[in-house]
Design brief:
4-stranded antiparallel β-sheet, 31% strand, elongated, 3-stranded antiparallel β-sheet, single chain, 146 residues, Immunoglobulin-like, alpha+beta
């Protein structure tokens, strides 16, 4: 008879991972697409003159990400492909946490963004998108003609 070591924390860790996956998917469902296989983590920062989005996309060529802005919605889509192993033997996956396949995110933007001057660049596995705000119209005094 073979003895199998009992790892109580392993069970708790798996449960926690599963709960995190469920709640992260639920929390992000408002920006996910129906066909998305995973959702890249995104930070959104707002400054007085701009918005900045930082999207974690390691393993994805930034030039292959489709970015569109229309009707007040910023949309990101692309794909992270499966790693190709040089070994002839296919590895046995022990744990897989990194999403693969198609991703799709959309963000609703306020009317104050300057759609004509959006800039995106990728570096170190992070896609950075800068969205400037439009200059606010300044009130002006209007003289009444006599």
């Amino acid at each position: 008879m073979a003895l199998i070591p009992y790892e109580s924390w392993n069970t708790v860790s798996r449960l926690q991972d599963e709960l995190n996956r469920v709640f992260n998917t639920f929390a992000a469902s408002d920006t996910s697409g129906v066909n998305a296989e995973w959702l890249p983590a995104t930070d959104i920062l707002e400054y007085g003159d701009r918005f900045e989005l930082y999207v974690d996309l390691p393993g994805v060529d930034p030039k292959a990400v489709e970015i569109t802005l229309g009707n007040g919605v910023l949309t990101l889509s692309g794909e992270r492909t499966r790693l190709v192993h040089e070994e002839k033997e296919e590895p046995q996956v022990r744990r897989s946490e990194r999403g693969r396949g198609r991703f799709y995110r959309h963000f609703i933007l306020p009317d104050t963004v300057d759609k004509e001057h959006v800039v995106a660049r990728g570096h170190d596995g992070v896609l950075e998108i800068r969205i400037p705000k439009q200059a606010k119209a300044q009130p002006r005094r209007i003289k009444v003609a006599a």
